[in-house]
Amino acid sequence: MGNVGGPLAAAWLRANANLIGVDVSTKLLEEIKLGISHQHEPFLSQIFTKSLKKNKLQLTNDGILASKNSQIKIVAVPVALKNNVIDLSIIKLVANNISKGLKKNDCVIICPSLPPGTTEKIILPILEKNSKLKGEKDFFLIYNPERIFEGRALKDIEENYPAIISGLGPKSLKFAENLLSIISKKGLLKMSSLSAAEAEKLFEGVYRDVNIALANELSDYCERAKINFYEARKGANSQPFCHLHYPGTGVGGLCIPVYPKFIINNSITLGKHMKILEHSRKINDFMPKKCVSDALQLFRKNKKNIKHLKVAILGLGFRGEVSDTRLSPTYDVVKQFLTKGHKVIVHDPYVKEDTNLPNSVILSHNLKSILKQADLVFISTDHKQYSKINENHLKNNSVIIYDGRNILNKTNFKKSIIKTIGIN
């Protein structure tokens, strides 16, 4: 019932389904009951509150019981990397729980992004072994990848994109077509196999990661050649076959930086190295170090003493307007500044607490206060409120600003020194 499962649950509740919401987090389940969950996803909390009152929604942390009491099981749990190795432990556990309640004519829908072949070669055997049932013959198995953008997830599911559907066989695919058409107003795209649908989902993220790496490399070139990257990008993108992305301080979240590694790792088992993907990952992973180095070089150029600076890093969310900090490049930015002996304060308007920051780092919610303290302001995340910063917010005109997201209005700064990524 988290970032993906919550919006999926809301979509089915809006379609008048009876739903059992399962999550291991008792805190999340309690927040749903109190009507305070999913604060950055429009309508979700209200839908849950209304459905609880109508007894259309039940909440539990018992996956086996939920499987026994349902006919359709939708899996929306994270699959991540641990030490660069794909970690399928959570989805295996969920599949095992589902199998203990799986009945004839039930349906299992897998939604997480997975290495191609995972649903059929790993999840299916777990479901069949414990249930003593056969996929396609006794139960339906569907792969329907989530296609959501945090902050508008429900609208994405219902309206913005066609649903990608695939099945273990023709019966499962037909069931998927009948079922998913209920909530997918944009229509359906049928894939010929489970693995094709798994690959499609990864390709979406791989495309963006490679494009961001290209933007980062071109922005570096522009800085050296004294060219405004954004001006060149605008001109290039006016041609319909060019879709250059934006450069930035790094790539975060559990999607874009992770999907290429699924493909890279999977490809190595097939005897193939994905050179473009591997190089793109290196470029994007290097960006926090490059940006911190550029910011300090700017300070050194304009101020002689750069020892023991007080650095205000703006933004901990992995991208603008989200509270999700998973794999945020800001963590690497913080690490780089600390390694060089500087004091760091992090601000984020949406992240209330964080246990992943070092103990020496303060997480503040008072933007005015930390701007008045800082010698160096480093914008790491493009939260909209940062675009409103001007010279009056700074402690003096000697503050150096590194705009890692090209979010500042430069006309608001007459005397301050600003370095924007992609602009010399």
Query: How much beta, percentage-wise?
Result: 5-15%
- Rounded to an integer in angstroms, the radius of gyration calculated over CA atoms is 24 Å
Using the 3D structure, state the CATH architecture of the largest domain.
3-Layer(aba) Sandwich
Low-confidence stretches: none
Biggest sheet overview: 6 strands, parallel
Number of helices: 14
Q: Name the CATH superfamily classification of the largest domain.
A: NAD(P)-binding Rossmann-like Domain
CATH topology name of the largest domain: Rossmann fold
> How many beta-strand segments?
15
Number of domains: 2
Structural class: alpha/beta
Quaternary structure classification: single chain
Mean pLDDT: 95
What is the CA–CA distance across the termini? 45 Å
Shape, principal axes of CA atoms:
globular
CATH C-level class of the largest domain is Alpha Beta
